[in-house]
Amino acid sequence: MLAAGIVFSNIHDSNLPELTKNRTVASVPFGCRYRFIDFALSNFVNSNIFNIMVITHYNYQSLMDHIGSGKDWDLARRSGGIKILPPFITAHANHTNELYSSRLEALKSVSYVLKRLKEDYVVMTDCDVICNIDFEDVINKHIRSGADMTTVVKSVELNERITEADTVYIANEKGRVKDLYVNPSNMHGKADVGLNISVINRRFLEMIVTDSIAHGYASMERDVILKNLEKYKFNIYRYSGRSARIRSFEDYFTHSMQLINDHEFRNSLFSEKNRPIYTKVRNSVPTKYMIGSAATNSLIADGCVVEGTVENSILFRGVKVSRNATVRNCILMQETYVGENSYINCVVSDKNATIRDGRLLSGAPELPYYISKDQTV
Predict the structure, then answer these.
(1) Which residue in 115, 119, 229 sits closest to 169, CA to CA?
(2) pLDDT band (50, 70, 90) for residue 162
(3) Which of 7, 11, 257, 281 could be 54's S-S partner, Cβ–Cβ 3.0 to 4.6 Å?
């Protein structure tokens, strides 16, 4: 079995405007020391897929810094490995020369690379679905079914947030897609919702991209799948494991807090046998807990200094919590400084944020207080 991987790094940047002002959604920090893209790359590597392309849009400097040569994921290879594909736009690309806004348009922008692929199958994934999935099982089921394209779905109870952002698939007992609804506003109950992960035959992918360029198609769901349900075989793969879909800043805060309070969710990501999650390795010093400090029910990365109190929080590398400061229900990203006698609750701070002495800051789980990168409060 030969398969290549494609990662869409910018598709849902608009869902997290607070965190994607200076980075792609793929490089948004998560869980103390990881980035969103770490889960996609680890899923590929754990499934023996080592030829991976990351399609970018803009703001991809931090993504390049994080991935580097790919050695931390065993992707620094002479043959295959990881390739970052910047936008490829010519003067005749379209009338306004705009960048893409959908997966199909992203694929059209790198059609020159797709033609060079030698693998029989291609696995395509977004970055804002956090899960630990075995792509080999998905590919094997795809091959056995004889499908042209297989989409990973999860059976969930529909709510307004899901129906506004996702695609619902209707399939028969054999898993063949009979209908689909893109962002349905009037559906209720339990349904199969797409996780934006697909396996597709490489030749079929080349064909639909070429056809889309010729006809100006922009949506994979509406223009390719929905219009060709009878002509081609589209199947679903039902994923039963735990996952987190980051559709908003509130989702980001909620699912980050799940890592602390939901042990089953945390174990489903980081304790799967033979499927570790890799990230960029930094040889930082251990965290120091000073006399009089206290830390409970928290995830704290290396390189931190804790002099105050930390409760139910996530601290990334290099965070300092000063004397008599209290941090509750917070997510503090790399190199955040919390001054003496400060009290913060439900706060998300970006990198290098500074909270001065004696500050009192509080948000709510539904609306966390956000401090942007390099900002001083």
Answers:
(1) 229
(2) confident
(3) 7
Same domain, 203 and 313: no
**Amino acid letter at 328?**
R
The answer to the question of residue 108 being in a domain is yes
Instruction: Give the C-alpha separation, 171 to 234, whole Å.
Output: 9
Residue at 279 is within a domain: no
Contacts 24+ apart (CB under 8 A), 180-185: 180/221, 180/225, 180/226, 182/219, 182/221, 182/222, 182/226
Cα distance between the two ends of the chain: 54
Domain end call among 220, 241, 270: 270
- State pLDDT tens for residues 345-370: 999 999 999 999 999 999 999 999 99
- Whether 251 and 295 share a structural domain: no
**Quick count: other Cβ atoms within 10 Å of Cβ 178?**
11
Host domain of residue 110: 3-270
Residues 82-140: tens digit of each pLDDT:
999 887 654 444 445 456 778 898 898 888 889 899 999 999 999 989 999 999 999 99
pLDDT in tens, 242-263: 999 998 999 999 999 999 999 9
CATH number at residue 325: 2.160.10.10
Closest CA to 150 of 122, 131, 130, 128: 122
